[in-house]
Amino acid sequence: MVTNLAQGVQAFTSNVYLVPGERTVLIDPGANFDVVDRLESRVDDLDAVVLTHTHPDHVGNLEDVTSAFDVEVWGYDPSIDGVDHGIADGETVQLGDHEYVAVHTPGHKDDHLCFYSADAGILFAGDLVFQNGSFGRTDLEEGDRETLIESIDRVLERISPELAELHTGHGPSVTTNPYDHVELSSQMARQA
């Protein structure tokens, strides 16, 4: 069961997903709160940290987590400080008990990745799309609206309309018709 460790945190942070199982993984350690304490109350060990992207609100706690758990970090661009191993577009990674395909999705940030498991019916979308048709900001450095739209469309082509769970970088996860929310994000990004 995927757990958002940032649930209820009032500080500026991203969502922080603990994916337990055969390979226990933390997706985005977040920022500005004691994620290590929340981790230690749930797991004895972590196998990896996986990043959707390296904006400060998603990686502010990275050093605390790697120090506490002596764990390596996976992300799109290993030339970025703190990223030990690269994940290529289309590469398969194990998160918990399932295999996920990494989809390179720039537009919000150049190193942005989404992770999709057809078997689990789960999409980790980072800051690409959110609930109710919202989508990632493109006014920051490396942001680009046209590129973001292309990225959303690439994800839409990959995921099934039967998608069961959409876990986003901010706001609530979507478990009721999540595919529709991704589709709406594609439409809204074109209109904004």
Automatic annotation (TrEMBL):
Record keyword Zinc present:
yes
Q: Which cofactor does it need?
A: Zn(2+)
- Record keywords: Hydrolase, Metal-binding, Zinc
Gene Ontology molecular function terms on file: hydrolase activity; metal ion binding
| InterPro entries xref list | MBL_Glyoxalase_II, Metallo-B-lactamas, RibonucZ/Hydroxyglut_hydro
Pfam family for this entry, one = Lactamase_B
Annotated Metallo-beta-lactamase domain ranges read 13-170
Return the Gene3D superfamilies for the record.
Answer: Ribonuclease Z/Hydroxyacylglutathione hydrolase-like
Q: Which domain of life is it from?
A: Archaea
- Do the record's keywords include Calcium? no
Question: What is this protein's name?
Answer: Zn-dependent hydrolase, glyoxylase
